[in-house]
């Protein structure tokens, strides 16, 4: 069972090893689709000196050489519900992407949307022995952060140092090599349900693949969809997927908050299926072709042929007005956005210098959604498309692929996380922290 508790540190080492070999796969396990991209890294500076996502992400040192998507099976609310079905779907996507890339892949980096993420802001400080900040000092100040008791059933998914202060200077991205006496650090820690992570790792291992990293979909969608100044000045990314809507807030190029709403595009489809009494596949087709959230006078007259194959001629020949369809869709869309607003308010989003909101994900493509979101969220809202990445097929450039593209950038330019530093063991303050780090301490 020990391989289920793979440490983040071991994953990071595995990622480096995979990148030395030059190929790695990206796996976005969603509720409506499973996407797999195969990346090839080239050139000696595979990771480059500056491991941050810049505006040149499209010109980065990797290219997509294989891509495949398959209908997701066995996933609900962004979490694995039926292991065997999800395993089959993952195998299908990975094999198709490998075939297109004409290369075998052993390592994957995966992202997922559910697992009830919870954000914590931590702070710690450390008096420097020597006047110059060393790698060791950064490790020690992180170890000094007071980690809350996140609970037995939770695991740490991300732990980013988001700000350093040296004496009276704050807002430092990297204090190493600078002089001072007191170093302070603010850290953002994201915890998720442990079981959801274990299931994900187990499923990928059953597909004969090694996990070289896991990430939150909300985080990677933000990396892909927010432009550089939005990441710097403060913006929220709302990733509207099939089974869950992820939410992440960035400032100074770091994620400082993430959450998820357990509703998404599939719930809208399900409402249409119930309202019109049609199968889910028909409801999905009607939603994507004719859906919307703003009804005008024209929509009363625009009739939509439902079609069907129930064998009842009357039932299969039915048609509804577009206004009726919008009447079914709008309440659910409003409910999702209201839930998002509650979480943005709880995070104190209105205190940021800039309050841009970017909608992405497959369900963000409903016509008129940005206008409705601006009304409900009370901020500037724009629709986001992920950054262009070399070699990405045209079919995979839409908002539905924000997480997949973000995961490519996460693989190529990882931000420093807690486990990239040798945190001295004697500095763990509480039992709760010991438990939180146990799973990435196993391989130290």
Keywords for this entry:
single chain, alpha+beta, 5-stranded mixed sheet, disordered C terminus
| C-alpha-based Rg, rounded | 23 Å
User: Beta-strand percentage?
Assistant: 25-35%
Specify the number of helices.
14
At CATH's second level, what is the architecture of one domain?
A: 2-Layer Sandwich
Write the layout of secondary structure elements.
Layout: H1 8-21, E1 23-29, E2 33-41, E3 62-71, E4 75-76, E5 79-80, H2 83-101, E6 107-112, E7 118-127, H3 135-143, E8 154-166, E9 169-172, E10 182-193, H4 194-206, E11 210-216, H5 217-225, H6 228-233, E12 235-240, E13 245-251, E14 254-261, H7 265-276, H8 280-290, H9 297-301, E15 303-305, H10 313-316, E16 319-321, H11 322-346, E17 356-360, H12 369-377, E18 380-383, H13 402-412, H14 431-441
């Amino acid at each position: 069972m020990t391989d289920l508790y793979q440490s983040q540190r071991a994953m990071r080492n595995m990622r480096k090893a995979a990148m030395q070999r030059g190929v790695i796969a990206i796996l976005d396990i969603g509720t409506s689709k499973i996407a797999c991209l195969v990346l090839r890294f080239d050139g000696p500076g595979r990771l480059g000196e500056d491991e941050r996502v810049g505006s040149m992400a499209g010109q980065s040192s990797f290219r997509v050489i294989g891509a495949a998507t398959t209908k997701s099976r066995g996933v609900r609310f962004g979490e694995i519900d039926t292991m065997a079905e999800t395993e089959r779907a993952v195998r299908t996507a990975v094999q198709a992407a490998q075939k297109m890339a004409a290369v075998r892949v052993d390592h994957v980096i995966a992202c997922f949307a559910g697992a009830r993420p919870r954000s914590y802001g931590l702070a710690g400080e450390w008096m420097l022995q020597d006047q110059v900040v060393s790698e060791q000092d950064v490790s020690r100040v992180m170890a000094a952060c007071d980690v809350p008791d996140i609970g037995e059933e939770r695991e740490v998914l991300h732990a980013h140092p988001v700000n350093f202060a040296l004496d009276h200077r704050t807002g430092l991205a990297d204090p190493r090599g600078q002089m001072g006496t007191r170093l302070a650090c603010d850290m953002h820690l994201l915890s998720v349900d442990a079981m959801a992570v274990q299931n994900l790792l187990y499923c990928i291992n059953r597909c004969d693949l090694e996990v070289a990293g896991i990430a939150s979909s909300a985080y990677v969608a933000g990396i892909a969809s927010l432009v550089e100044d939005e990441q710097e000045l403060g913006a929220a990314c709302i990733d509207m997927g099939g089974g869950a809507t992820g939410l992440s807030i960035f400032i100074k190029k770091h994620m400082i908050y993430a959450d998820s709403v357990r509703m998404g595009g599939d719930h809208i489809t399900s409402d249409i299926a119930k309202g019109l009494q049609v199968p889910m596949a028909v409801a999905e087709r009607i939603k994507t072709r004719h859906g919307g959230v703003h009804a005008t006078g024209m929509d009363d007259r625009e009739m939509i042929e439902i079609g069907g194959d129930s064998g009842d001629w009357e039932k299969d020949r039915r048609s509804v007005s577009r206004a009726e369809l919008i009447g079914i869709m709008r309440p659910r869309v409003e409910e999702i956005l209201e839930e998002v607003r509650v979480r943005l308010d709880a995070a104190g989003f209105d205190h940021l210098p800039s309050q841009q909101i970017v909608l992405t994900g497959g369900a963000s493509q409903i016509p008129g959604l940005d206008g409705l979101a601006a009304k409900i969220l009370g901020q500037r809202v724009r629709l986001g498309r992920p950054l262009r990445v070399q070699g990405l097929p045209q079919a995979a450039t839409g908002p539905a692929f924000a997480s997949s593209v973000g995961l490519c950038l996460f693989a190529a330019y990882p931000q420093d996380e807690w486990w990239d530093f040798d945190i001295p063991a004697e500095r763990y303050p509480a039992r709760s922290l010991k438990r939180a780090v146990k799973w990435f301490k196993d391989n130290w």
